[in-house]
Amino acid sequence: MALPLRSLSRGLASAAKGDHGGAGAGTWRILTFVLALPSVALCTLNSWLHAGHQERPKFIPYHHLRIRTKPYSWGDGNHTLFHNSHVNPLPTGYERP
């Protein structure tokens, strides 16, 4: 059973006639200002309000995590390139602040 792709493509192509989208461009502009921008603003506000300092979890020395077969080629060889001492533990545990 063949799909009527030719009629589908003709229908989509006919919608593109006119001056830069016609009424479709106005619809997308209204949707952008009414839905998209307020949604981004609400998500930004939500993340800003809920961004607080959280207590880091207790360190459990699992033997299958943080395996160092050879030292890193920078620093002391034990810290990763983008190491954050507040979040990323070393193989022996968290660093003291």
Word description of this protein:
It is a single chain. It is elongated, with a radius of gyration of 27 Å. Helix content is 38%, strand content 0%. It has helices at residues 5-14, 23-49. The model has no long low-confidence stretch (mean pLDDT 82). The chain contains two helices and no strands. The protein is mostly helical and 97 residues long.
Supply database-style keywords:
97 residues, mainly alpha, 2 helices, elongated
The residue fraction in helices comes out at 25-40%
The residue-averaged pLDDT reads: 82
Q: What is the terminal-to-terminal distance?
A: 69 Å
Return the string of H and E elements: HH
Coarse shape: elongated
Topology of this structure?
Elements: H1 5-14, H2 23-49
